[in-house]
Amino acid sequence: MAQFEGLDNRELAHALKGQTVSVSRAAFPKADEDEFYWVDLIGCRFFGEQDGQSVCVGEVVEVLDNSAQSILVVHRGSWSAEGVFTPEKDEQGRPLEELVPFVQAIVHSVDLPARELHSHWSV
Q1: pLDDT of 27-56, one tens digit each?
Q2: Is 43 in contact with 115 (CB distance < 8 Å)?
Q3: So what's the pLDDT on residue 16?
Q4: What's the pLDDT score for residue 1?
Q5: SS3 at position 45
Q6: Which of 16, 27, 58, 116 to pair with 90, CA 20 to 30 A apart?
């Protein structure tokens, strides 16, 4: 929920229904140590575990809210040496997805400067 200066009644606010609202990153309050803005997670490499080893699963492309917790939408795939991500696709050409609960029991490390999330997610 948000309240905008100058929009102090329901009729004025209703006129903006369905519109996109943009906010400068400079206006974001600083997140607490264990909190993250969803926009910062999108584009991060997501690592899971296979045979006790950390392996890159893919890229976080979206974050969803299911009321109980946030869900990371991860497209499975790989990166080229130039840093270009190529998603794996199904028979219909759609990216293969993993839906990963964004909870500390699963995602144990978020390194935003490195653009990496490390997890116990089984690959």
Answers
A1: 889 999 889 999 999 999 999 999 999 999
A2: yes
A3: 81
A4: 61
A5: strand
A6: 116
Pick the CATH number of 27-122 from 2.30.30.240, 1.10.287.130, 2.60.40.1180, 2.40.50.180: 2.30.30.240
* Helix, coil or strand: residue 97: strand
Closest CA to 122 of 90, 95, 100: 100
Q: Which residue has the tokens 């006790």?
A: 52
- For 72-121, where are the alpha helices, taking DSSP H only? none
44: Cβ contacts below 8 Å, ≥ 6 apart = 59, 60, 110, 112, 115, 116, 117
Gap between the Cα atoms of 63 and 40, Å rounded: 10
Decide: 58 and 76 in contact? Cβ < 8 Å. yes
Question: Which residues are CB-contacts of 87 (< 8 A; sequence separation ≥ 6)?
Answer: 58, 59, 75, 76, 77, 95, 96
The residue assigned the tokens 């979206």 is 62
Residue 60 and residue 107 in contact, taking contact as beta carbons nearer than 8 Å: no
Domain borders along the chain are 27-122
